[in-house]
């Protein structure tokens, strides 16, 4: 089942599912809602804070590290796989649901706060460390 992610990027705006994410990208900087994210993008690589994120977007799919991510954004909410995410970024910190997140990605591993996260997504299920979560359809 294809999950339709409507992605549109202009020179200064970034839309997901028609919702405007305040995005600004320079050659070496990446801002979300005015907050500076250390981002670097080459033709085939996507780095956040110096860590390589394998990002691939087709017309109807959105992959991170080869896993299909169901992303949904409303005017005031941000969902990943049906779960409401509160995202806040300061100049030097990255918060999800009020928790300071330390993100590190290697070629085969995905760490949050030093813990190895095993992420697996099917068309209808979302697993983190073997625990099943409902996806947003």
Description of the molecule:
By secondary structure, the chain is mainly beta. The chain has one domain. It is 0% helix and 51% strand. It has no helices and 24 strands. It has strands at 7-9, 14-16, 19-21, 23-25, 30-32, 35-37, 39-41, 46-48, 51-53, 55-57, 62-64, 67-68, 71-73, 78-80, 83-84, 87-89, 94-96, 99-100, 103-105, 110-112, 115-116, 119-121, 125-128, 131-134. The strands form eight sheets. Strands 1-2-3 form a three-stranded antiparallel beta sheet, with no helix packed on it. Strands 4-5-6 form a three-stranded antiparallel beta sheet, with no helix packed on it. It starts with 6 loop residues before the first strand and ends with a strand. Mean pLDDT is 43; it is low at 1-62, 69-78, 80-131 and 133-137. This is (apollo) hypothetical protein.
